[in-house]
Design brief:
Length: 373
Amino acid sequence: MEVFIIPRKEKRLKTTQKQRNGRIMLFISIIPAILSIITITEKVIIPFLGTIEVTQNKTEPVYNPESLNNSYVIAKPTEIQESNDSYFFLTNVSTLQNSTSKNLIVSDATIEIDDIQPIKEADLEVSYGLEDNKLIIFIINNGLENSKNSEFELLVTFEDIDQVQNKLSSKDVENLFLTKTKRKDLLYSGDILKSFELNLSDELHKLFEKNEKYHAIKFEITELVSNKKFEIHPIYYNRSAKSFTFGGMGAGGRDKTAVLLLDVNNASNKYSVPVNKKIAANSTEQINLFIVPNQSSKIIYSVKYSTSNSKYTKATKKIESTITVPLYNTSYSPNGPFFKSLIKNQITRYQHNTNSNLQKEIGYDYKKVLDSH
């Protein structure tokens, strides 16, 4: 019988090879983990070498959605903006600062809604224009409540080239414009009333021809119960054409970075809307966010932004706003489409939804309100 003896040295060599093989397999198995750590480091640690933050946040009242040039009240991230009223929609303007050395993309905005409550109230406004040598003024109850015992008073002022104001008495207004200066009425929800029709009479033309310094006529309507005042654009006398006309009124647009269409009765507590706006390295950029509800409401909300380096800004402090959504898509510009529709249909008094064709022309659609602004 032959006996084979395995040398001890060879046995140690085989054991060492197994260990080496095991170490190789272990290294291969942890490669994904190492790559993952590198990726996390790049996304989490590196961005903190520079930050992006909201340096200012403000809400802007929108009383004239055709121009969007009204003044605003600043709401810093450390403050809450109280009772910021707007019309049609709310404009939230955030100033974001990129303090990194790389360009970043603001990918989306997250709107967090703490509370939203629908409201019902009367909402009186005016629409007006020049037609057949007359200034015609309609008063509209554009809200969901009735306006009881409303009384409107018309005030007229002549202005000369030195901006000297000459207020006319009620009697002078009646004689020159062939109209009453007061109108008392009950305006139900959705009522449209032709309230004042001012005839630009021959006597008025003669008066401006005689007084060469006269160049404009200003109008103001006051609802006496609430003391609410309605602005009417002045009309100017064109001496070469011997006619009155409205002055130039530029309508400035605004970059619509992000828009949230909000169904008030089915609102969530959080929304994400795309932004996709570039902020260059070490610079600031303004983000305009439009919140467009489908009915009048009070809303408390905050906003934060996500960037291409996977980092969120801090949320702004809570902002409280009231957004008034109308029944009709009225126009604040003289001779606007709303006014022209009323003139074309010879409206002296209109009740909501009583004329289907007219209603299609002048009815408000919150999904389209930003199209023309």
